[in-house]
Write a structure and sequence with these properties.
Layout lengths: L2 H44 L8 H11 L13 H5 L2 E5 L9 E5 L10 E3 L4 E9 L4 E9 L8 E9 L9 E2 L4 E4 L11 E6 L17 E2 L1 H7 L1
Antiparallel strand pairs: 1-2, 2-9, 3-8, 4-5, 4-7, 5-6, 6-9, 9-10
Bound molecules: zinc ion.
Zinc ion binds next to loops.
Length: 224
């Protein structure tokens, strides 16, 4: 056998060993992967600091551990509980509005700094300043097991002057979450309120033809 032939045989044998090894690995991997995944999930549920990655299962864990913050009813966020001394300057759907603008009956900035309350028990998922006309926004996810269609809804409070809660806090119905503001002086003071049945969407445009995921806040709050 020449040196060249030896070299070729070596490569051939090496390739065959490699191919068999790969075949064995693939077969073996297919056989063991489902059970190892199940084991991972099982151990994850026992691990208290772990939250599953999908939105709903994350909130299942959060509310299962804090059942006193599950919603049983909804109130208006200003003039609690029924909106006394406030009116809606712009309704949902008016000029493609995705929320309701709540103003004090005094008009202008007479409601600047008035308290804004959580519409129900829930979990604060967002409390940040957002640029370009939004101002401070607080978002709360509510677990509402009594609803026939929406096990979770979200309330969204924008243009706030002050925020009194932080992301990751639990909140009760009627608890102060912030005050009415002007979105950094862009508007006369009012609360922009959204209610959503599709939770954890982006902040959104405020106005749109596409109302997917949005509820009419007053209709929902009055019903529940
Ligand atoms: Zn608005």
């Amino acid at each position: 056998m020449s040196h060249h032939q030896k070299h070729t045989s070596f490569i051939l044998i090496s390739s065959m060993i490699f191919a068999f090894t790969m075949l064995f690995c693939i077969k073996n991997n297919n056989a063991i992967s489902p059970s190892s995944e199940q084991e991972e999930v099982a151990s994850a549920i026992e691990e208290p600091s772990f939250y599953p990655t999908t939105t709903e299962s994350k909130y299942e864990v959060i509310f299962a551990k804090n059942p006193t913050y599950i919603s049983n009813q909804f109130d208006f966020p200003v003039g609690k509980p029924d909106g006394t001394n406030y009116f809606k300057a712009q309704e949902f759907g008016e000029s493609k509005h995705l929320g309701e603008d709540w103003n004090g009956i005094g008009g202008g900035n007479t409601d600047l700094g008035d308290p804004v309350y959580s519409v129900s028990n829930g979990y604060v998922t967002f409390a940040e300043h957002v640029c370009c006309g939004w101002g401070n926004i607080v978002r709360v996810v509510h677990k509402f097991p009594d609803h026939p269609e929406y096990p979770y809804v979200e309330s969204f409070y924008a243009h706030l002057d002050v925020m009194n809660v932080k992301e990751g806090e639990f909140i009760q119905r009627g608890q102060l979450l912030g005050t009415i503001g002007t979105a950094d002086g862009k508007y006369s003071a009012h609360l922009h309120l959204e209610m959503r049945n599709f939770i954890d969407m982006g902040v959104g445009p405020g106005y749109s033809d596409d109302t997917f995921g949005f509820l009419v806040p007053t209709d929902f709050i009055e019903k529940y």
